[in-house]
């Protein structure tokens, strides 16, 4: 009885992370000189690639949670980073949604929170 994930399955290129208190955080591949990729698999595992190298692998789960952005119940992803707790390259726990067909966002569901954006590679 898992929350469906088929629309998220694929390879996603990180495009930026922003937000925080007074919107102070703005990071992009250009500003960090880093390319990051999030791969979400059908079997609820994920991998993160940094500059083309796999740096993290783990399980993720999806639950329904009330979004502070829309006030609606939305899907919330939790990526298990226990095997690499400081590999915090972008938001990996948050409200996850697809917009404009091939763009993905993960927002941590906190006021003054941060969010990350991705673009579908395949």
Describe the structure in your own words:
This protein has one helix at residues 29-32, and strands at 10-19, 25-27, 36-40, 45-50, 53-66, 73-79, 93-99, 103-107, 114-120. By secondary structure, the chain is mostly beta strands. The protein has an eight-stranded antiparallel beta barrel with strand order 1-3-4-5-6-7-8-9.
Quick structural gist:
This protein is mostly beta strands and 122 residues long. It is 3% helix and 52% strand. The protein is globular, with a radius of gyration of 14 Å.
Q: Can you summarize the main beta sheet?
A: 8 strands, antiparallel, barrel
Poorly predicted spans: none
Tell me the number of strands: 9
* Strand residues, percent: over 45%
Spell out the helices and strands N to C: EEHEEEEEEE
Q: Major sheet: order of its strands?
A: 1-3-4-5-6-7-8-9
Taking all residues together, what is the mean pLDDT? 92
Inertia-based shape: globular
How far is it from the N-terminal to the C-terminal residue, by CA? 27 Å
Radius of gyration: 14 Å
State the secondary-structure class.
Answer: mainly beta
Q: What helical percentage do the residues reach?
A: under 10%
Q: Please work out how many helical segments DSSP would assign.
A: 1
């Amino acid at each position: 009885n898992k929350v469906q994930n088929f629309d998220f399955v694929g390879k996603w290129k990180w495009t930026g992370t922003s937000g925080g208190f007074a919107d102070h955080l703005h990071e992009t591949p250009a500003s960090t000189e880093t390319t990051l990729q999030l791969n979400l698999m059908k079997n609820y595992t994920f991998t993160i690639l940094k500059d083309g190298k796999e740096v993290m692998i783990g399980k993720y789960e999806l639950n329904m949670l009330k979004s502070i952005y829309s006030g609606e119940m939305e899907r919330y992803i939790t990526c298990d980073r226990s095997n690499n707790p400081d590999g915090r390259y972008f938001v990996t726990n948050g409200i996850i949604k697809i917009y404009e067909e091939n763009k993905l966002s993960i927002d941590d569901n906190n006021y003054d929170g941060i969010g990350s954006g991705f673009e579908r590679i395949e």
